[in-house]
Structure formats: C-alpha cells, structure tokens
Amino acid sequence: MRPRMRGDVFYFPTPEGVYLRNNQGAFHLKGKGLARLLDLLSPYLDGRYTLEEITQQAPEEQRALISKLIEMLTARGFIRDLTPDHPHQLSVREQETYAAEIAFIEAFQDSSAWRFERYRQSRVLLIGSGLTLQALVQAALHSGLADISVLITSECSLDRQRLQEYLALRRTRDPLQKLHMLEPLNWDDEQAVARALAPFEAVLHLSDRPMLRRSALLNRFCYQQGKLFLGATILDTQAWLGPLVSPAPGRQEASRGCWECAWLRLLANLPSEMATTLYDFADHPEAPLSYALAGPTAAVVANTLNFELFKYITEAGPLETSGHLVFIDLETLQSQRHPFNASAHCHCCRQAGPLTASHFRDLVRERSTGPVLSLEEFSRKAAHLFDPRLGLFSALDEHNYTQIPLNIARVDLARPAPYLSRAETWRVFGAGSDFGAARRAATLRACEGYAAWCYDPRRSLSGSAPEIVGRAPESFTCYTRSLEPSTSLDPEEDYLWAWELPDEQVALVPAAAIFPLSAEEGRLQLPPIGVAAGMSWSEALCRALFTHGRAALEQRLAQSREPFPQVEIGALALSEAAQRYRHLLALQEVAITVYDLSALLSDWGLLAFAFCCHEETWTYTCHVQAQAAIEEGLQLCLQHAQALRNSESDYALSPVTPLPSALRGETLIAPLYPSVEVWEQMLPALLAALQSQGRRALVVPLDHDAALSEALPYIVRIVLGKRRADDGC
Fold it and tell me: Where does the YcaO domain lie (predicted)?
C-alpha cells in the first residue's frame, strides 16, 4: 500500500480527537493526540512511501495505531492507495504546476496523474474567431494541454499577438506548451476539411457569431471519424454549449444524439422569427455581435467548454453537456442544462431507412403482443419528452385556468417537422377529475398530435425502389392516394408499409395518405382522423376506428329523416365518474339532453350519442360500450360548460355539425346496452363490421420519432382501404 492524502482534505483538532472533511463528506475521529499524529504523518502521505516504510520509522508501540489510522482513513475516502494506479511520465515540475488539476481528478478517479497526462498529451484542435476563441486558447493553455492547434476563421477579428502573449506567460510555468497556428480552410472543400481534422482526437468550435453550417459540418465529420466534437454558439445574449459528441464505442454519448439533433430540437421550439433564419443551418458571418459578449462573458463560455473536454478525457466529474445543451445567459451568467432526444430529422447520426416487409411484419406482431402500459409507467416515460427549450413538448401546466369542477391542463408542442409553421403555437388540452388525470389526458393528446406530423421521408419507399419492384403479386397489396387498390405502383409516389386488417397482411400506402406533407395540410386538423394512441395496441386501434366512426356519423346526419330517441341517462347504470359529471352539470344548471344515434352506425358496430344543450349541439361520441361513450360525452360537456362560464375559450370544444331540431325525438329510452370491458374483445367486432362494408383497416404505426415511440409505442394512424378485386397488386 502506498497511501496518499487526497488533495481536497483538511482537518483540525477537536477536544475529543480530530475532524476531517473533503468534497465527499466529513468524519470525526475520536482519540486524543490523533491530530498531532496526523501532523507528523502528513509529509509521508504523498504516495512515495509504502505503509511498511512509514510504520518502520515510528516507535514500536505506535506502529499498529498508525496502520489502523491509515486504513480507516483510506476506507473513509480521505487517503488513497496509489499501488494500483497506472504509471505516468509526468515530471515533478509538471505535477507541482498542475497539482490543482490532478487533485480535482483524484476526487473522482484513481490514477489521477496518469489521467491528467493523457489529457495533457491529447491532440486538440480549436476552431473559431473573436473574443470567445481567444478565451478558449487561454483556457486550454491554463488547463495544461501541451500541444494546441488553432484554426482561426474569418468572421470575427482576433488579436493573434495576444495569443502569443498568453503562450509566453504560460511558458514561464510550463515551458513544454506549444501553439500551432493552422492555415485557413476553404469550408466548401469538404475533402480538405476532412483531411485537416484527421490528425486530431478532439475538435472544439467557438465563435462570436453563429456559424451553424460550419458547426454542422464539423459535427458530421467528427461523428464519422470517431472524434470528439464540442462547440458553443452565440445567439444574441444566449450562449448554447454542447452537446458533447463522441461516437466512440462503449461511451454513452454515442447513442444520445449529436449536435444536429440538439439544434433541430432547439429550433423546433424557437419563435418563428428566430427559427426561420436558423433552420437552414447557414453561417451568419455578418450577424451583429452580442452587446453582452465581452472579455469576462467570453471567458465563462470558453472555460466551461474546455472544462467539459477536461472532464471527458480524464473521466473526472459529471459531464454537463452529455446528452444536454447548456444555456448561459450572457447578461446574468446564469446557466441551465437542457436534455434532448435524438431527432428523427437528423442526417448525421440518425441514418434512417425503410424497413423490409418482413421486418415490418415482425414489428407489428411485436407491438400487437406488447405489454399494456400502466398510467404510472406512461407518466414516467412521457416526462422525458418535456423540456422548455429542447423537448418534443415545451410545457405542461394549468396556465391559470379555472380548476373547478374539472382540472384543465395544457401542453405546448414543438414543431414535429421543419416545414411546419411556427406562426401559431401548437397546443392541446386535457381535462380530468384531478391534476394527474388532466395532465395525462393532455400529454396523450400531445403524443397523438406530434406523431401525426412527424414524418421522416427516409422511412418511405419509392414506387421504383428495387425492394418492391418485381415482387410477386401475392407479396403485398398496394393502394393509391384515394385508397383504391391498385394493380401497379406509381414510380413518382413514396410509399409506407401498412398492416392490413382483418387479413393481417402487409400492404403499401402512399405516404401522402398518412402524413400531411405541407404546412397548409398541417393546419387542417389536430390530430387527423384515424390517429389515436392508447396504453395497448388494441386500445390504439379501437380509438382510431372510433374517430372514423364519428366522422361517418356527422356525414350521415344530412341523410337522416327519422328523429332519434332521447336517452334517459338517469335510468342507466352509469359509471361513478359519469354520475359525478351529470351531478356537476346539474349544479351549474346546464341541461344536457342525450340522443341515441346508434342507428346511423349500426354497420360500424358502434353505439353513438349526441349531447345537446338547448338548441346547441356540443359534441358526439361513439364507442362499443355505451357507458364509456356517455361518460366521455358528459365529461366533454362539463369541460365546455366550464370554459363558457369562465370565459376561457382556449379549451372550449370545437364546433360540430349540429343535430337538426327535426331529428331530436321526444321518445325516452333506457335500453340495456351490452357491456364489453376489454379492448381486445372490441377490436374483432369492429374489424368484422368494417369488412362487411367492403373496407379494410390499413394500420401505420406512427413511430418516426424514436423518443416518442419509446415513451408510447402504441400510436397509429388507420386509413380505410376500399374493396379489392384480388389479393395482389
């Protein structure tokens, strides 16, 4: 054993013994004279002497006490045994010069000198210009890098003489340090850029102006070549640092996304006026310099960036930029960490491609037999989708809405795709009998809306793709945009795999029939008909078919002639929640009349109801189970009444096709509706009814965003294919 007192330890005598403290904790060791004994031992606790050599110099009667004391302090983390440490080649002068850096490493890892030596010998390239790069060079020199290469770019001025002055000053303490100034690059010559990066292990990029194209280029090359990339971007009074990108095998950073992922997430949450100028990842060499950027603020940004490099290479301390962007407010110097998920639209680290038919079949079968998510598990997983700056969803709150009688929650969505407009904030609402229920409802609806427009074109197949051209006719069915069966593929069309039910066959449908492909389409409806999510595969499919049933219901009202009977809901065996909603509506003197419209959807196998307040029609619901449909309708009516009473139109119900007064019958009915409790039992009946209409359910999993799919794998869009003449195309 070669004991060494950790560099962060201090101690002082107490009446009972000695009190020790370091960065990890404190320890009060009782025993008179122990403080004096530690004073005598301290010069020998530097790792140069073995425990045996230390005790041999002590009187015989104290050797056992010294051994026990050192072993106890080692167990408590105040002393380290240097015996298993990796050997290093640092000189005594280097160890003395960088004692603080080595002590910092020692607080987290063993072999601290060896780890610092590895950092010191790293081949690092610093790229950029302006005050921030100047500060970064100073930070790199101060932290002990021995050989630093600098590539100065042209968008900002930089005092090269000042860099040499920094080097000269540092060499009074560390004569081995060097600065190499590289020749400027033509950034349009990607081969030249790749060659310039080749000799280096790590690349740091920092400029006073936002050079996004260059950052994206460096990110891509470093990712492809397995190099560390770490950058910072200045946007007005904001500095965004990270993420740390290192696709080296075995490191977590390889699977957390890259710089492009993080910035796609950030831009999706920025206001439209700022995002519009940045979304193309262009350089902005003429952008105004931030008034908040000066020597001190540039030093904060640069030192934070270099410290992340230091911690990564030495594996000492938590990395702030691993899987995160770090935001620094240049006016206040307050900082925040923001986690991000890999982006579906990244062209660097997300090499998405279409599945084969067999892989798609396996995926659907896996999800159809997947476990049912509990509400608690969904809430826990969905929490990772929220972040005010980089999340799929930027906010989940009650926004000062009235919370009686229902709790109301709101979720703000980021843009699911770059082409979608940010002129209006995408928001969805949820209502429930408590805060948790309201927030889950809003989050579930947000998942549906986001997935409905998150389209990655790389996941589609061209109509001329060799994977599908020339396949046997019985391999799959193909459909046109109007969802007619087709005998041939359109070579100009992009297709997605779909799961055809009830036949359980693979089919091809045009991507344009599943996803809105333009900003204009994106404004039409949130979410589109046929999109639904659930806690299980069967629930998602059933709810998606319910949306088609409701759309058919409103279309068929115009052809109806016979009045529909009223439902005497007081005579029905309602759920406890439905009874509570009915009672709360009565307390507000809101008279709701429920009409049974199930005759319109008899061929769908669905029960349907209209909910009217005086002359207005507030909502329609349809379901296989009457109690569930009525409970949903009463809750929606209570939500609408609450919005009207409190003048909170944000969460009021959207207008629906009114139920004509001529179709509002006077007859009261209280039939014994069938009870179906399980989603798995509902689905076969719905599919059979659909087949009897000569139509098929074409199911497309909405899983283009991996983070969303991981949190909630059961999000689908169902479109209804028409009867086909044969089984092939």
Answer: 430-729
Average pLDDT over residues 594-622: 96
Q: What CATH class does 3-81 carry?
A: alpha beta
Summarize the confidence of residues 630-639 as an average pLDDT.
Answer: 97
Distance between CA atoms of residues 331 and 619, nearest Å: 50
Cα 116 to Cα 103: distance, rounded to the nearest angstrom:
10
What is the Cα–Cα distance from 337 to 358, expressed in whole angstroms?
Answer: 41
Rg (CA), the chain: 33
Three-state DSSP state, 26: strand
Strand order in the sheet with 564-567: 616-623, 607-613, 593-596, 564-567, 664-669
- Place domain 122-339 in its CATH homologous superfamily: NAD(P)-binding Rossmann-like Domain (3.40.50.720)
- For the whole model, what pTM was predicted? 0.89
389-427 pLDDT, tens digit per residue, is 999 999 999 999 999 999 999 999 998 987 776 666 789
DSSP designation for 503? T
User: Residue 467 pLDDT > 80, yes or no?
Assistant: no
Which of 625, 619, 630 lies closest to 574 in space, CA to CA?
Answer: 630
3-81 and 122-339, same CATH topology? no
In the chain, what are the domain boundaries? 3-81, 122-339, 537-681
Distance separating the N- and C-terminal Cα atoms of the chain: 77
AA letter at 131:
L
* Cα distance between residue 601 and residue 538, in whole Å: 20
Q: Which residues make Cβ contacts (< 8 Å) with residue 689, sequence separation at least 6?
A: 603, 604, 605, 606
Helix H or strand E segment including 667: strand 664-669
